[in-house]
Design goal:
This protein has about 725 residues and is α/β, with parallel strands linked by helices. It contains 22 helices and 31 strands. The strands form 5 sheets. Strands 1-2-3-4-5-6-7-11 form an 8-stranded parallel beta barrel, surrounded by 5 helices.
C-alpha cells in the first residue's frame, strides 16, 4: 500500500480547526493557551483541546500540539505536565523546540511521539541525525532548504521529514532570531514575536555617511509569502512525508482555501491525473498575499523574494469566497461528513434494538422500554427514516438504513430520537480514542533530580576573535579560552599561549563549509583543544568525526537545566547561556548542571542570520553566489524609524544583522560571578575598544570595579537583569 504524503494545516482558532479538517487536511497543528510559538492566536483551552482531538480522530485527521518555545526551569515542569495531559487525551504528537523539554519527554513520557519544530533550526542531514538519536517521529526542516538539499537529506536519513509549502516566510532562520527580543522585549523563541522584520528601514552608506534615497523608509527585510504550488509533486518524489501550511495567525477562510488548493495537487499526483488548479490557486491567493515566491525550493535569480511591503492584501473576490465558505468552518459542516449505517429491529413486547456502524466501529443500543402494539398508531418506515435521519447536529450522514419490524408495532418518536442520539454519541466516543494510553505519573522532585558535583572554579575570561589582528589581544595572563573562526590564519593559533583553544563554528553551516571541515579535521585536532558549535547539526558532525571537546554556543538557546543535561549526555563539556536568559535562569542552571557554563559579557549580538541579501535591492543584484567579492557586503547599516543603526554584513552567502549597542555585563559582573559561572566571554566583532573591555572585565571578575568603561546609553543589559516576555 502506497503511503500518501500528509497535508498538515494550521489552526489558531476553533473555526480554523474545523475549516482545516473539513477542507481535506490530513493533520492539524495547534497550540494550547501556554507554551506555544503563536501566543497571539486564540489557541485552545484544555476542554477545547479534548474536544478537537476527538473531532479530528473521528474524521481520520491527526492533531499535533505545539510546545515549541524555549522554557525556563520555573516553567518546564508545567509544560511536561501539559504534555502528559495531551498524551492521556490521545494527541498524535507534540511539536517541540526546547532541548530540555525533549530530554524530559523521552525520560518521563517516552511513548509520546515528538516532532522537532522548525524553531530547532535543522537545515541539513546532520541536524536530522542529531535528533534521530532521540527517536523523534518527525523533523520539520528549515524553510531555507532547496529541493536539491531536501532530496539529499532524505537520502541520508531515516526519520520522516516535514517541510513548509505555503505561507509567510520569516526573514531569519527560525529559532535564530533575536531582533524582536532585543528591540521590543518580545521574544520569537517565546512565541511573542513583534515582527520587526516587517517594519520600515533605510539603508545607510557607512562610507559616504548618507542614506540611500531610493530605499528610504521601506520594509526592506520583509519577504514575500511562500507558495510551492506544483513543486509539491517533486517534493513527493524527493521523499518528504509531510507538507506544512503556515498560518495559525490567519483565519478559517485562508485555511480552507489553501488546504483545498494543495489537497487537489496532492490527490492529482496519486491518481495520476492533472487537474486545472488555477482557480483554486487564485482563491488561495485572494485570502492573503504579500506576493508569492518559490525561490527557496527552486532558486531563481528572476524570482524576487523581497515583498517591499509589510502586510498582506486580499483579492477583490474575497467577499464572494467568504460567503461560499460559511459552512465549512462549523462543527457540523456539510463537508466531509462520516457515513453511518443503521439497522433497527422493532418487535412487540421487546426492547427496540439499533445497530450502528461507521465502517470501523459498531454499537448496539436498546430502548429502555419495550415496543408496544397499536392498530391505529403503528410506526411506519417513513417515521423511522425521518427520526433516525435527523443527523444535522452530528458529523454523520445516513448511508444505509435497514428496518426490521413487526406489523402493528408502536414506538414513540422520542424513543427513536434517543436511540439515534445514544448510537451516534457512542460511535463518536469509540472512534475518538486511537491509542488507549495509560496515565503517566511523575513528581516535581523526580523531574528535578540531578547528580550535581559541587566543583566551583575561579571565573575566567574567554574571547572570540574575528580577525588575524585580534590575536594580539590575547594575553594569556587574562584570557583562558579563545574561540577562533575556522577562516582565520590557523598558524597564528599555534603561536599564541593560552590554556584552551577552541575552533568557532557559526550557527548556519553550508555543505561547502562541511567539506572544508572534513578536509582539515586532523589540522584542527593538532591545533585546538575543542570546538564551539552553534547548531545541533555541527554538534553531530564534530562528535562523529573528531576527538575535539565540544562547547555549545548561545544559539542553542539554553535557558533551563535540562537542555544542559541533554547536551552533556551527548558529549558537551561546556555551554553558553542563551542571550535571552536572565541571572535567575543562570543561577538555577548552575545549581543543577554538571557542565561548565559561560555568559556573553560584552558583544554586539547577531540579531538575525538570513539567506537573502537586503543589499541586493540597492545593487539590483541577482547573483548571490559571489558575496565575498561584493563591495556592498559590509558597506551598509540599517537605520530604523527611531534613528538607530544596525550593522549588516554579507558572509558565506548569508546576511548577518547586529545590534546597535553591545550587550554588556560591565559594572554588574560581580552579580554574575556570585552565580559561579565559569567563563565570561568577550566577542571582538565591531569593537573598537576590545583591549580595554577585556582589561575591565578581568578586573571585575577579580573583584575590582573599573569606572567609566561604558558610555552612557551606549550599551544594553538585554534580558540579563529582567525577564523576557
Amino acid at each position: 500500500m502506497i503511503r500518501k504524503t500528509e497535508l498538515l494545516a494550521p489552526a489558531g482558532s476553533i473555526e480554523s480547526f474545523y475549516a482545516a479538517v473539513n477542507s481535506g487536511a490530513d493533520s492539524v497543528y495547534l497550540g494550547g493557551k501556554l507554551f506555544n510559538a503563536r501566543h497571539n492566536s486564540q489557541n485552545f483551552d484544555d476542554e477545547q483541546m479534548k474536544r478537537v482531538i476527538k473531532y479530528a480522530h473521528n474524521k481520520n485527521v491527526k492533531v499535533y500540539v505545539t510546545l515549541n518555545i524555549i522554557l525556563k526551569d520555573t516553567e518546564i515542569f508545567d509544560a511536561l505536565k501539559y504534555a502528559a495531559f495531551l498524551y492521556e487525551n490521545d494527541v498524535d504528537a507534540v511539536i517541540v523546540q526546547d532541548l530540555g523539554l525533549l530530554y524530559l519527554l523521552k525520560k518521563h513520557i517516552p511513548q509520546l511521539p515528538v516532532n522537532i519544530s522548525t524553531q530547532g533550526a535543522v537545515y541539513d542531514e546532520y541536524g536530522v541525525k542529531f535528533f534521530e538519536q532521540y527517536n523523534v517521529q518527525k523533523v520539520i526542516l528549515a524553510r531555507e532548504m532547496s529541493l536539491a538539499q531536501l532530496r539529499e537529506t532524505v537520502k541520508n536519513t531515516d526519520t520522516d521529514l516535514e517541510t513548509f509549502i505555503h505561507g509567510a516566510l520569516c526573514t531569519c532562520y527560525s529559532g535564530q532570531c533575536y531582533m524582536s527580543s532585543f528591540l521590543g522585549g518580545r521574544s520569537g523563541n517565546r512565541g511573542k514575536c513583534a515582527q520587526p522584520c516587517r517594519l520600515n528601514y533605510s539603508f545607510y552608506d557607512k562610507e559616504k555617511g548618507e542614506l540611500s534615497e531610493e530605499f528610504n523608509e521601506m520594509p526592506v527585510l520583509s519577504l514575500k509569502d511562500f507558495m510551492a504550488g506544483e513543486t509539491v509533486h517533486e517534493l513527493i518524489d524527493a521523499g518528504i512525508t509531510t507538507f506544512k501550511i503556515e498560518g495559525r495567525m490567519k483565519g478559517p477562510l485562508y485555511t480552507s482555501e489553501v488546504v483545498r488548493y494543495y489537497r487537489q495537487i496532492i490527490d492529482d499526483y496519486y491518481k495520476g491525473t492533472q487537474t486545472d488548479t488555477s482557480t483554486l490557486r487564485e482563491r488561495a491567493v485572494s485570502t492573503f498575499s504579500r506576493g508569492y515566491t518559490n525561490s527557496y525550493l527552486k532558486p531563481d535569480k528572476d524570482d524576487e523574494m523581497f515583498a517591499k511591503l509589510s502586510s498582506g492584501v486580499k483579492g477583490e473576490n474575497i467577499d464572494e469566497i467568504e460567503e461560499e465558505n460559511n459552512d465549512i468552518s462549523h462543527e457540523f459542516s456539510e463537508y466531509k461528513r462520516n457515513s453511518l449505517n443503521f439497522k433497527i429491529k422493532l418487535k412487540i413486547g421487546e426492547k427496540a434494538e439499533l445497530f450502528a456502524s461507521d465502517g470501523e466501529n459498531e454499537v448496539l443500543i436498546k430502548s429502555e422500554e419495550p415496543c408496544e402494539s397499536s392498530l391505529r398508531n403503528a410506526v411506519t418506515e417513513d417515521i423511522v427514516k425521518e427520526q433516525l435521519g435527523k443527523l444535522g447536529n452530528t458529523i454523520y450522514e445516513l448511508q444505509d438504513l435497514t428496518i426490521e419490524k413487526q406489523d402493528n408495532v408502536f414506538i414513540r418518536k422520542s424513543t427513536l430520537n434517543q436511540l439515534r442520539r445514544d448510537a451516534t454519541e457512542l460511535l463518536y466516543e469509540k472512534k475518538a480514542v486511537v491509542y488507549h494510553r495509560e496515565p503517566v505519573c511523575f513528581t516535581r522532585n523526580e523531574v528535578f533530580s540531578f547528580n550535581k558535583t559541587d566543583e566551583i572554579n575561579k571565573p575566567r575570561i574567554s574571547v572570540k576573535i574575528n580577525s588575524d589582528d585580534d590575536f594580539k589581544l590575547i594575553d594569556n595572563h587574562k584570557v583562558d579560552r579563545i574561540y577562533v573562526p575556522y577562516k582565520l590564519n590557523l598558524d597564528l593559533v599555534r603561536k599564541i599561549s593560552v590554556k584552551e583553544k577552541y575552533l568557532f563554528i557559526p550557527n548556519i553551516v553550508s555543505v561547502t563549509q562541511y567539506n572544508e571541515f572534513k578536509n582539515n579535521l586532523k589540522l584542527y585536532e593538532e591545533i585546538f583543544d575543542g570546538v564551539c558549535v552553534n547548531n545541533v547539526g555541527s554538534f553531530f558532525f564534530f562528535k562523529q568525526n573528531s576527538s575535539l571537546k565540544i562547547h555549545c554556543g548561545s544559539f542553542f538557546n539554553i535557558i533551563n537545566s535540562f537542555s544542559t543535561e541533554l547536551l552533556k549526555e551527548n558529549g558537551a563539556v561546556s555551554v553558553t547561556f542563551s542571550t535571552e536568559s536572565n541571572i535567575r535562569d543562570m543561577e538555577s542552571i548552575n545549581k543543577n548542571a554538571s557542565v561548565k557554563t559561560e555568559v556573553k559579557s560584552h558583544e554586539y549580538l547577531q540579531l538575525m542570520v538570513m539567506k537573502n541579501c537586503p543589499m541586493s535591492l540597492i545593487k539590483k543584484c541577482k547573483n548571490l553566489q559571489d558575496c565575498s567579492t561584493c563591495e556592498h557586503r559590509n558597506k551598509y547599516a540599517l537605520k530604523d524609524r527611531k534613528g538607530v543603526y544596525f550593522n549588516i554584513e554579507r558572509d558565506n552567502r548569508l546576511t548577518h544583522i547586529y545590534n546597535s549597542v553591545p550587550l554588556s555585563l560591565l559594572g554588574k559582573t560581580e552579580d554574575f560571578v556570585s552565580q559561579h559561572i565559569d567563563y565570561f566571554m568577550v566577542d571582538t566583532k565591531w569593537l573598537d575598544d576590545a583591549e580595554d573591555i577585556i582589561d575591565a572585565l578581568y578586573c571585575e571578575i577579580n573583584g575590582v570595579r573599573v569606572p567609566n568603561v561604558l558610555k552612557e546609553n551606549n550599551y544594553t543589559r538585554g534580558h540579563y537583569l529582567k525577564n523576557i516576555l
